[in-house]
Amino acid sequence: MAEVTIYQKPTCSTCRQAVQLLKESGKPFTAINYYEKPFTKTQLRTLLKKAGLAPKDVVRTKEEIFKELGLAKKELSDDEWIDLMVTHPDLIQRPIVEKGDKVILARPAESVKELL
Questions:
Q1: I need a surface site. Which of 13, 25, 53, 113 has the fewest CB within 10 A?
Q2: Mind listing the pLDDT tens digit for each residue in 29-63?
Q3: Catalytic choice (9, 10, 12, 49)
């Protein structure tokens, strides 16, 4: 049985809720702070593909960096979005939870139960 991996930011309340649900499940999991261990372009692309999500689907549009870079007015390719998210991890919706070939964006946090 595949182990669960949660890619998260420990100060994010949704991430903390998802981690708590994983702990309560009693099943083993790995928590990765993607600010300390950043995503590679290939890794992020693979996770999004497994989730069936386009890069733009997981962009945090309310982040200051989104506004600073004027991203609302730009038409970007998937590769350009990936590059921006790897460079600016605040742009990535979180948490992203992986189990084997399944990946979900655990928003709300309770959706992590789908993988348990």
A1: 13
A2: 999 999 999 999 999 999 999 999 999 999 999 99
A3: 12
What is d(CA 71, CA 56) in angstroms, rounded to the nearest whole number? 11
Condensed to tens digits (0 to 9), the pLDDT of residues 8-35 reads: 999 999 999 999 999 999 999 999 999 9
Q: Is the pTM of this model over 0.90?
A: yes
Domain ranges of the chain: 4-115
Cβ–Cβ under 8 Å, residues 19 and 8: yes
Whether omega before 108 lies within 30 degrees of 0, making that bond cis, reads yes
* CATH number for the domain formed by residue range(s) 4-115: 3.40.30.10
Q: Assess whether 12 carries a catalytic annotation.
A: yes
Encoded amino acid at 8, one letter: Q
Distance CA 4, CA 79 (A): 27
